Amino acid sequence: MKDQSYYKQRLEDEKGKLEAELSQLAVQDPENPGHWTLRGADLDIMEADDNEKADRTEETHIDSIVLDELGARYRLVLHALAKFDAGTYGICEVRGQQIEEERLDANPAAKTCKAHLGAAEDKAL
Questions:
Q1: Of the candidates 75, 79, 84, which has an alpha carbon nearest to the alpha carbon of residue 3?
Q2: CA angle at residue 2 from 14 to 81, to 5 degrees?
Q3: Nearest to 14 by CA among 3, 2, 25, 6
Q4: What is the chain written as a DSSP string?
Q5: Residue 38: closest CA among 75, 6, 67
Q6: N or C end of the chain: smaller count of CB under 10 Å?
Q7: pLDDT tens by residue, 65-120
């Protein structure tokens, strides 16, 4: 198995990229680093016509969906990084066995081994 520092570096790199993407859409909660709040609209609703209002509503909806996806991945990455400090990185959260190297290569934030794929992966933190 690769040295764990390899996976930690990949996770740190991904964390930085996610933070850059998230900061374009949202503001991070300083008391809860895993939580991001969508930025407000730059449109003065009182002066906007109906088309502008509809466009901004649609953009906000799309931004919200993207924020949910990026935020979920960000929390998984934070969770995986915390496992290094706890000494549990690379251990399946369902049965406590070693997660396969090819699984970690594909997804360094994996929470489970291949046998338990999906058991905990899709649950948001």
A1: 84
A2: 35
A3: 6
A4: ---HHHHHHHHHHHHHHHHHHHHHHEEEETTEEEEEEEPPPSS-TTT--HHHHHHHHHHHHHHHHHHHHHHHHHHHHHHHHHHHHHT-TTB-TTT-PBPPHHHHHH-TT--S-GGGTTTSTTS--
A5: 67
A6: N
A7: 999 999 999 999 999 999 999 999 999 999 999 999 999 999 999 999 999 987 75
